[in-house]
Amino acid sequence: MTYLPKPRIHHPSLQRNRVGFTRRDYEGAMSTLCAGCGHDSISAAIIQACWELDIQPHRVAKISGIGCSSKTPTYFLSASHGFNAVHGRMPSVLTGANLANRELMYLGISGDGDSASIGIGQFVHAVRRGVNMVYIVENNGVYGLTKGQFSATADQGSKSKKGAINTDAPVDMVGMALQLGASFVARSFSGDKAQLVPTLKAAMTHVGTSFVDVISPCVAFNNHPGSTKSYDYVREHNHALCQMDFIAPQDAISVDYPAGEVREVRQHDGSVLLLHKLPASHDTGDRVAAMNYLHACQARGEIVTGLLYVDPDAPDLHAHLDTVPVAFNTLHERELCPGSAILAQINAGLR
User: Fold this and answer.
1) Which of 79, 121, 151, 196 has the fewest CB atoms within 10 Å distance of its CB?
2) Which structural domains are found in the chain, ordered by start?
3) How does pLDDT run across 177-196, given as a tens digit for each residue?
4) Radius of gyration of the chain, Cα coordinates, nearest whole angstrom
């Protein structure tokens, strides 16, 4: 697949942040996702958050797995370090990179298929170990690259593009993150920029595991069965020389509503999300209360958004392992190989 670069020439009047970068300096290649995809809104929020925080792009490492969500690092922070891992393996690759160089800010970009199915074990262990990272799940409830099958986060009773009903209970990654000990847990909606950008800024400045679940609508699977204008109908009644596809452009979904209120958000396929923004009185320091609040809203069919829990003093993986305070990749041979006498002392201490 070819990615089109954006022009490098910027207008001289573009505003610069304290480290001398314009917002355009935090962008990436032109997006190849469907027009109106919520994932592009998340990319825009990441760009805005990094620009407002005066983050130097070369101090960021963005690591992803496989899926529509895992393509998105191509579309932001083109001057940052990047690694696209295999399906579901992003957390372990990120953990290894973090252990080797603790001086970078790590963005783990994943999706509900990548993290809640094949990568769920990786997700569990990275969170419980307290890896210092921002773990972002772009959650749309379907496998977008393989034509819209239900993912593990799809709500029970929801209907697919082909009319199938999901009978399985969903995996709630926010609830899992709380239970596993993540020290920063939040959920947002891709179309709520006023909430998402500050949430990402808070996650990026937190030391420890920051988990942000972002509900992100998929626009590619909202053409209903039975329509004579649907992709399936045309393919069944057409003699084509080759297989082609077209995704009709859609408007991005956006909302803006006060804290503590509930809003109905209609999706492109006609389904409705009930978004419940946490009230200002919510105690973000009480993990058990956050879990109870989350389950109470789920029982009413509401999706809680906002910062559910944060522990500002939580230790990260390096603190658990008592590693040296500098990046491993900066250590020289004299530190890594101190000699046989020191090695003998270490071995004696293990007996």
Assistant:
1) 121
2) 23-320 (3.40.50.970)
3) 999 999 999 999 998 999 99
4) 22
